[in-house]
Design brief:
The protein has 295 residues and is mostly helical. 54% of the residues lie in helices and 0% in strands. It has one domain (6-226).
């Protein structure tokens, strides 16, 4: 059992809030707050047929996921092709996650051999979890997949990251539905099959829809509704008829990414800040307008 270190987790959480791209802090938080979650998870892992086989004969999943030429030969619509689309669009690799986690690998020195296999398996399958759950690699998607992971692993570090991340996004964007989306991810994680015991190597060629059905993974409806492409801004009511309507937002705008805040999520009712048509001054509050008018 790893000793919980809340102060270390708090410092890492502060750094993660300042820079959401600092993935190393995620592993620090998880390891500082894991407690007996890894031990219990490894015991459950060894009690399954797949887990027992992997403990006897560990497989290098990273080598499979980095062989992109082989994965590209999988059928269209398969899990492997969906995984390639995910990591390709995000510009990430399985080796990158390994190198980041090894920056604090000394904290796992006290794990047993079986616990080490279980912990590495969780790390190496992280992007596969993104693929099957439907949560993207943007900050909002990471918050939701972490909430899903907490339901699966009961690691307190996942719960803290999901809660703080959802609160941060909700405060910045004013979207209360962010918390509901994270809660839906947690509930879906409780209802799904136990993913740590899945033999992913045998599922890569199967259709993604079939894999999701077999693993009882529901569609992330709340997450998708908040990340829907932004709609064109409505024309002003007093616009002359002979004046052309405002240009619509570009179809290639990137939901979840903008130039002002890494935490902003565009919704159907609020144009995303990454679109050129949305680069406008924020509206003044009612109280600010009253002061300006001398009321």
């Amino acid at each position: 059992m790893l000793k919980r270190r809340p102060l270390d987790a708090l410092r890492a959480l502060r750094e993660l809030v300042r820079n959401p791209e600092d993935t190393a802090q995620v592993f620090v938080i998880m390891r500082a707050l894991s407690g007996d979650a890894i031990g219990k998870g490894a015991a459950r892992f060894g009690g399954t047929a797949t887990g027992a086989e992997l403990l006897r004969n560990p497989r290098d999943l990273v080598a499979v996921l980095t062989d992109r030429s082989h994965l590209a030969m999988s059928p269209e619509g398969s899990l492997a092709r969906a995984y390639l689309d995910l990591v390709g669009s995000a510009g990430i690799t399985a080796e990158g996650l390994v190198s980041v986690s090894e920056e604090s690998a000394h904290e796992y020195a006290q794990l047993t051999a079986d616990q080490g296999v279980y912990a590495k398996r969780l790390r190496d399958t992280h992007d596969l979890w993104h693929t099957v759950t439907g949560y993207g690699t943007d900050t909002f998607g990471e918050v939701c997949v972490v909430a899903f992971s907490y339901a699966q692993t009961r690691n307190l570090g996942f719960a803290v990251i999901a809660l703080i991340g959802a609160l941060k996004i909700a405060r910045v964007t004013g979207e209360s539905q962010v918390l509901r989306a994270a809660w839906q991810a947690y509930r879906d994680g409780r209802r799904a099959a136990w993913l740590p015991a899945v033999l992913w190597e045998d599922l890569l060629d199967r259709p993604l829809a079939e894999v999701r059905e077999a693993l009882r993974i529901a569609a992330p409806t709340r997450y998708r509704s908040l990340r829907a492409p932004c709609a064109p801004p409505p024309p002003p009511p007093n616009r002359p008829r002979n004046r052309p309507a405002p240009a619509s937002h570009p179809t290639d705008c990137a939901p979840g990414r903008n130039t002002r805040s890494r935490w902003t999520i565009p919704s159907q009712t609020r144009p995303c800040w990454s679109c050129p048509a949305s680069q406008r001054r924020p509206r003044r509050s009612v109280r600010s307008r009253e002061r300006r008018r001398g009321w």
